[in-house]
Design brief:
Keywords: Membrane, Transmembrane, Transmembrane helix. The chain has about 80 residues and is mainly alpha-helical. It is about 90% helix and about 0% strand. The protein has one domain.
Length: about 80
């Protein structure tokens, strides 16, 4: 199982790196190197913010309380 997870992560990471390289190579001549680097930095920060917001929503105490209440109702029907 661990090998499959590692293989999946490697393939997805290498695929995204390839797309990022192509996008950066295309942006460089179009908008300039400095602007292309700023655009890539902005996208990196944006992706981190999106991932952290999803993690924070999934781990919120209200969501955990709702899941606990639902599980309790399923185990103990009225």
């Amino acid at each position: 199982m661990l090998g499959r997870v590692n293989a999946t992560m490697t393939v997805s990471t290498m695929g995204v790196m390839t797309l990022g390289g192509l996008a950066g190579g295309a942006l460089g001549p179009l908008i300039g190197l400095r602007s292309a680097l700023w655009a890539c930095a902005f996208m990196a920060v944006l992706s981190i913010v999106l991932v952290l917001s999803i993690v924070l929503v999934w781990s919120s105490p209200l969501d955990q309380a709702a899941r606990t209440a639902t599980a309790h109702r399923l185990r103990n029907p009225v």
